[in-house]
UniProtKB/TrEMBL annotation:
The chain crosses the membrane at residues 77-100, 106-130. It comes from the Bacteria. This is Transmembrane protein. Residues 1-25 are annotated as: Disordered. Keywords: Membrane, Transmembrane, Transmembrane helix. Residues 1-12 have a biased composition (Polar residues). Residues 29-102 form the General stress protein 17M-like domain. InterPro entries: GSP17M-like_dom (IPR025889).
Amino acid sequence: MTVTSPFSSGGRQAQGLPRLPTPPTGWPIGSYATYQEAQRAVDYLADNQFAVEDVTIVGVDLMLVERVLGRLSWGRVLMTGAISGAWFGLFVGFLLAMFASGAEVTYQPILVGLVSGVLFGLVFAAISYASSRGRRDFASASQLVAGRYDVLCQPRNAEQGRDLLAKLAMRPSGSSS
């Protein structure tokens, strides 16, 4: 899956993709309730030697869904801060140990990195949580979803794509290609 940003300066631009945000073009050949169904439809087209480079999946009626994972407390915030700090500290400690002068392997940089990471993680988590003053005492995960997913195709192949997707719709949903 290639994800590009219209604001990125370097890197390779995928062939045929516009450089600026551009509305999709093409004729609708299928509409699906979930992204998984739309992806299955395009995969079916590809399995049947259809020119999938003419196909676009478009999410319509976008929604930002925030799922609440649980309540935040000082204990949970500090534990999470300590754990994330420990991981970062271990990473820095391993880097320091790898590039330390001397032939012998020493664990001091790793230990120093771990302890420093835990302390910094605790401090930054505490400052961040205290600054919210109880306005957001829950953890959550956000996801961008669509109300439906339309599959569009360039006009030159739209009829053939519609015919193939009609065959797919007549198949039982559990069967494979």
